[in-house]
Every structure is written in C-alpha cells, then in structure tokens.
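INFO worker-7 received task bundle
INFO bundle size: 2
INFO processing item 0
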Amino acid sequence: MNRPVWLLDVDGVLNATRPGWSAAPRNGTAYGDGHPYRLRWAPALISRIRALHRAESVTVRWCSTWCADADQVERLFALPPLERAWTGPIDHREAPAAKLAAAHAVLDQGRRLIWTDDDAVPTSGPVYDELVATGRALLIAPRANRGLQPGHLDTIEAFVSATGVLDRADAAPRSTGTA
C-alpha cells in the first residue's frame, strides 16, 4: 500500500474565518462535546478533498480535537465517514502531542504522510527535520484564518501522484509554511 495517509485537522485548516478560494464561504453548525460550534469553510476545498478520497489516492484520517465528533464535521461538509487518529475526546492541551504521535505512527508503518495543521505541524527544528528526513512526509501549516488554500491542494496532489519517487529525501517539497 503506497497510498499516503493525510492527517487532517479541522479548525484553522478547513474551518477558517477567511477561507477565500474565489467563492463565497459556507457556514454551518457542528456539535462537539454537546455544544454548537459555527464553522466556516470553502466548498471548493471540501470538493477537492472529497475527490482525492473517492479516487482512493489518499487515506484521509481526522487528526483533530474533533475526532470524537467527526461525524458532525462529516455531516456538515457532506464527507463520507473517514478514519480517525483517535476516537475518544481529547483535551486541547493534549492535542499537539497526540497529533505528533499520529504522524510518527504513519511513518513508522512505512506509509507516506501528509499532515495539515495550523498549529501542531512543525515548520523547522529537530522534530521537523526528523519527520521530513526520508522525503516521505509533506507538512503543511496554513494560516489559521485562511486555512488550506488552492496552492496547498496543488502541492498535496503532486505529492500523492509522485508514487515511487519519494523514497529519496530530495524528491519533493516537504513542507509549506504559512502561505
């Protein structure tokens, strides 16, 4: 199985105050921990994620404090049920360590990794260097108010289609920062 695993966060990645994408954003309510939360997203972004999932190009796995209530996000975004990095509730203080553990688990399984998170993805330093050392990891940390942008999805699609080339550490871009 050479299909990459995409660890996908919600807030600051899909849910953004100014998602852009040259079209009006959508708004809706999802319930987490029994409380309503207003989400705002770019429909074109969700369509591209849905297309990658349907084409079985990537295994999309929620890696978010929303994991326990991912069905709410899936309902709101009209996404099929996706894998979860964990199933129970997780405290926001525990989330960065849990997300990093999920990233390590993907790489330890010999899988390629796409990790999109506005605040947990390292953009430099020893943890970043460790994750990208083999060229099997694409790390994207979008600006929280903008979330993932079209260029980020272009980079993800290029990474996904680079099957077999990414065993070399210099084969593909390994991180995009806060563009």
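INFO item 0 finished
INFO processing item 1
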Amino acid sequence: MGSALPLGEPVPRDGSLEVAIDPTAQFGVYLHVPFCRVRCGYCDFNTYTADELRGARQDQYADTLLREVQHARHVLSDIGPIRPAATVFFGGGTPTLLPPGDLARMLDGVRAAFGVQPDAEVSVEANPDTVTDATATALAAAGVTRLSIGMQSAVPHVLAALDRTHAPANVRTAVEAARGAGLDVSLDLIYGAPGESLEDWRTSLEATVLLEPDHISAYALIVEEGTKLARQIRRGEVVTPDDDLQADMYELADDLLGSAGYEWYEVSNWARDAAHRSRHNMAYWQGADWWGFGPGAHSHIAGVRFWNVKHPAAYAQRLAAGESPAAARERPDAAASALESVLLRTRVREGLPISELRGEGRHAIAALIADGLIEGSAAVHGRVVLTRQGRLLADAVVRALTD
C-alpha cells in the first residue's frame, strides 16, 4: 500500500494556498488511479487490490476524483490565473483497470476546470493485459495521445520473479492496439530482478527494440522497505540485486538502445527524438507546477509541496465532507530547493548551468571531469552534463557538487 507519507505542516481544511502563481510557469496534471489486480512484490506505490479496498469502491472512483478537480479549481482561482494543462498523466496502479469512459470523464473534468492545451501530452499507464483495440480507440477518442505500457521484461521467469502476471506476447498486442489508434507508445522496463542474467536482460532489450516504441524507460530494481521483495530478501529466499550486475545491465541498455536510434535524455529514459520525450516527467525534473489528484498523490504549486491522504476511503471521506484531501505540506527553504535543483537537473541530458552552483560545487568540476563523471566539453560551455559513468554514479556527482 505504499510507503509512509512524509511529515509536514498542517493544511487548512479548505486547502487554501498563500502563494502567488507565475502565470508563465507550466502547469501539469497527474491523476492517480490506485487499483491493481495483483500487488507486485517490488512495488512501493500507493496501490490497492480489490480485497484491500475496505470502505472504498472502484466504480465510484472517477466521481470522487472529480470532486478534487473542482476543489483544485477553487483553490487555484483564488491565487492567480487558471492555466491550461500542458501535460496530463494517468498513473497508478493500473489506470486501464477503470473503464475507458471513467478515464474520459476524468480528463473531461480537467478540461472543464482548467483547460488542456491543444498540443498537450496526455499519457495513460497500462498493463499489457488490459489493452484491447477497443480500449485504445476509446482512449484516443477521449484525447489521450500516449500509452505507457508496463512491459518490465520479455523473459517469463523474470516476470514471475517480479510477480507480473501478463504474458510477454500481450505486450505486442497492446503496442499494436495503441498504434492502430494513433497513440504514441512508451515501454517501461525493470532490470536486476532476482535470477535475471545479463543475457535475460539482452533478450528483453532486443524484444523492446523490435516493437519500435517511441520511448523507453529502464529502471534498476530497488528494494523498498515494507515490500514483499524486502521480506523475501530478509528471509534469505532471494538475493539482494547485485550493484555491479545492474551497472553492466545499464551499460548494455545504453549501448543497444543507442545503436537502435534511441537517445538518452534522462538517466533512466531514452526517446527516438526530442519530440517523444516524456514532457510530463520533464516538467517534474525542471521544477514546473503540477497538481496531483487522487489518494497519496503529491503536488507542487509555486514552491509549495503537498500530498493527499493515502487510503481511497479516507480520500473520499475528506472530499465528501467538503474538505481538502491534503494530509500535509511543506515549503522547502532556499538551501533545500538548490539541492533539489542539482539533484534533478543533473539527471537530464541538457544538464545544469554551472552558474547555478555555489563556490564549493564549482570547485569540484575539474575533479569530476578528471574522474570521467561529467563531460569536459559541456563544462567549457558552462553546463554540468553527466557522462555514462557519471549517470551510474549520479548520486556521488550530486554530493560533490553540493557538499
């Protein structure tokens, strides 16, 4: 059911914000759908299977979330002009467990409350087993532009280790359905699962490239406290993911994807070209404004971060009572904001302007170049850009730039 929410300051019952909106700042919308058929052993997201939904109903979820959309419209209209959404992202969970009509109503609610830019990127995450021709066609008709399919692996024993229940063949079916409906396609992969070899990972990468997606995400498996995987490791049933093997897997991904015409633009993301980058995720990395709707969803408006109560029942109860569903909020100080900027912006291909670093960080540049962690040519032009080795050691680079 996800990790514990962070601590923060209390939120007024009406959710009001004492900030001024920059009308030129990009605004994005995240819509969290917290339902899954099966809980994957590695997953730490705020998701629920049917037997965990005491006090909440999946068939009423769209109506509940739309109450928060109206609440957000009221809060934002009090502090500045309403900005149309440049990106909308349905995440989860498995958004496609809801009927396409529910997702369409949610998108229509966003459109009515804020507007959606004509060229907006509208993404929906999907499990391969939930995508049919009819589903993809209905989503496209509603205004969805992009389907992000949770492939994870093409190797059955790796999928089993991850508790993924879809058949590998269904990934192709889902991709073809999305293509037939005119949707862009992103495939999401995970590497470093228990028992996964380098050749298994090569098989998955080659299968991914053959499907010719527009965008590929590849994330190293992380053992999150409180998950089934963490318990299995603690009991000695499976081994902890091997850091060296995961590094080899990352380098293999970068080689194979690069030779197939995909360009890295963020440490864990590759795209055919700049037009097919995830604009929604780029907004996160670049510090834009967004409102996250749904239980446990996080938001960022004009420097204030806030997050909703976790359980769908508590979320619904707050909204039914006319209260904000936010559990707490915080406003990072200048030092925390500067650290976050370095942490996020060094991860993207364009990098971070050296001029934004404090003296200690600037003095670290020469050593980082000598260690092969940042590109010397980019530094000459005033930017910190990670080399591939630097991407593998991104946390160490950030520490050097901020200590």
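INFO item 1 finished
INFO post-check item 1: The chain has 16 helices and 14 strands.
INFO post-check item 1: The longest helix spans residues 61-77.
INFO worker-7 idle
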